[in-house]
């Protein structure tokens, strides 16, 4: 259990957001290498990913003055959809900054929901600098995609649901971008079941948190070389690094080609259209990064998308 993100904050987030989101299902499958895995289908969530949980928990906790100033954030796509959807639910204007590596399908979808969408910067970190500048100049309320307690608490509700539906899990695989999802989920599941293993999955071309955990300090990547844009910040944040260092048992790296193959497998065998990052956990299992060893394995399929095809 982490003292950095208490389970009480996650428990409090659940009744706040549950009337407005979906209770996504678990799906038990057997991979083509005979590894059984229980999938948490956040790709079926409102807004297309788990990100609505943290965004909505944050927005519903803001005071009237903060909402009236409007919301601004930077995103690889999913957090932007979460903030834009939360803004639409509450009648709040939203400005979303996206890097140029965001899939066109997500840009188009966001333009139909957000008040303003600005595509600029090579990677998320560049877009985020522009969002922070906008927040400062125009007094908008900035919503961080991962380094925020209310955002992480909202994401942690995924972990509560997983252990209710699959209480016998021994291992849980979670894709890592900035670290908000795994920070919240690890805080939740370790509080309930301390012996469960939580394994993070990053792209080989964006080992942001693996490098930082291995070094024992927050590092900034020199460059990003992955198509999985939602797994690709050059830098995380101290709060996420601290939680992950405390609670996450290991971080594995997967190749883009393996994520693409895993995304195609999920479509062909489960009828799930997912983005590359959502296939990362399945890629780790199918590529031999880890074996079942008789353990009951769960994985979060974190977001829908077309970039896996």
Detail the topology: elements first, then pairings:
Elements: H1 7-17, E1 26-30, E2 36-41, H2 51-60, H3 64-68, E3 71-74, H4 78-90, E4 94-98, H5 104-111, E5 116-119, H6 124-138, E6 141-142, H7 149-165, E7 171-175, H8 180-192, E8 197-203, H9 208-215, H10 238-247, E9 250-254, H11 256-270, H12 280-286, E10 297-301
Parallel strand pairs: 2-10, 3-4, 3-6, 4-5, 7-8, 7-10, 8-9
Antiparallel strand pairs: 1-2
The count of strands amounts to 10
Task: Give the tally of structural domains.
Answer: 2
The coarse overall form would be: globular
The biggest sheet, with number of strands, parallel, antiparallel or mixed sense and barrel status, is: 6 strands, mixed
Radius of gyration: 18 Å
Question: Structural class per helix/strand content?
Answer: alpha/beta
Q: Could you estimate the helical fraction of the residues in percent?
A: 40-55%
CATH class value of the largest domain? Alpha Beta
- Mean of residue pLDDT values: 96
- Count up the helices: 12
What is the architecture of the largest domain at the second tier of CATH?
3-Layer(aba) Sandwich
Instruction: Give the N-to-C terminal Cα separation.
Output: 38 Å
